[in-house]
Amino acid sequence: MNTNRFRRVRAVPCAVCAVLLVLGAVTAQDGKPSAPQDPVAEMNKTLADAGLVVDTKGKTIVVPAVMGRPADPIEFVLVHKRGKAHEALFVTDVKASILNTAFLLLGFTPGENAKSVERDPLPTAEEVAAGVPFADVFPPKGMNVWFTVRWKKVDADGNEVGLEVALEDLILDLATQRSIEDVEWIYLGGNLAPLYRNEPPVFIGDYEGNLVSQVYRAPPNHLVTVSHKAADDDERWWLTETVPPPDTPIEFVVHKDKPKLHVERDAAIAKRRADEKEGAKKDG
To answer: Which uninterrupted H or E stretch holds 103?
Structure first.
């Protein structure tokens, strides 16, 4: 486990900081910040200008992005172009504070990041050799969020067809050689903190550019974290054969309610496991 991602860094979580930053982007003709004439209209314009489609009735956010070109194991599902694209599935031009505003409009509230707590007393050399960890990892807590991914491809007849899959179908668990299972995604909401001492706070995600994590990271400057029993392993995740070609335009869809694709996927996994269990009984 890479314990560096759990280093103790304090920042101030902020449920409304993204909205304030978006509205604060409005400036007067003299270049100084000014209060928008119609805050709601200005916010909606900012979201639309970023390419986001926010459906408050359907409880979804459509984020424009492209399929990445990861060179290393996957540590992030979605990053801004200034984020860790070499470890990410998808890359977008949408800034963290603007995407976070869309989350807030759907009624998301910030959760609690995963924690790593050093064991006291520390394990003995014999225990370490037997696989006992130096620290206990506690999963994140908060509101669940689901993701689907849409893109278009040309079929064998030359026709353009649309595809939509659950995000999980695109992430390969190298330990099982299957797409990731028993996974959740938890909304965190990012952090507001100064970059340097005695400077005003900023939305850190706008500077780091990391939006949705595939492994546990601290401090929680990203918007969404994975929750999985092996999420402290940063070398376990890769791409399935279902992913589109690099640089393919995609729509990364955020869902507040569990989509049908995920309901069907969970049912298929449960059936496969039941069949495998029944087969093992017969073989036994």
So the answer is: helix 96-105
pTM check: above 0.70: yes
Contact 96, 223 (CB under 8 A): yes
Q: At what angle do helices 17-24 and 96-105 cross, to 10 degrees?
A: 120
pLDDT tens for 225-282 read: 999 999 999 999 999 999 999 999 999 999 999 999 999 999 999 999 999 998 888 8
- Give the rounded distance of the alpha carbon of 109 from its chain centre: 15
Any residues with CB less than 8 A from the CB of 166 and at least 6 apart, and which? 146, 147, 148, 149, 259, 261, 262, 265
| Strand 53-55 to 60-67 pairing | antiparallel
The 3-state DSSP class for residue 233 equals: coil
Q: How many CB atoms lie within 10 A of CB 37?
A: 8
- pLDDT tens for 16-75 read 555 555 555 444 444 455 555 677 788 889 999 999 999 999 999 999 999 999 999 999
Bridge partner residues of 254 (DSSP) = 61, 147
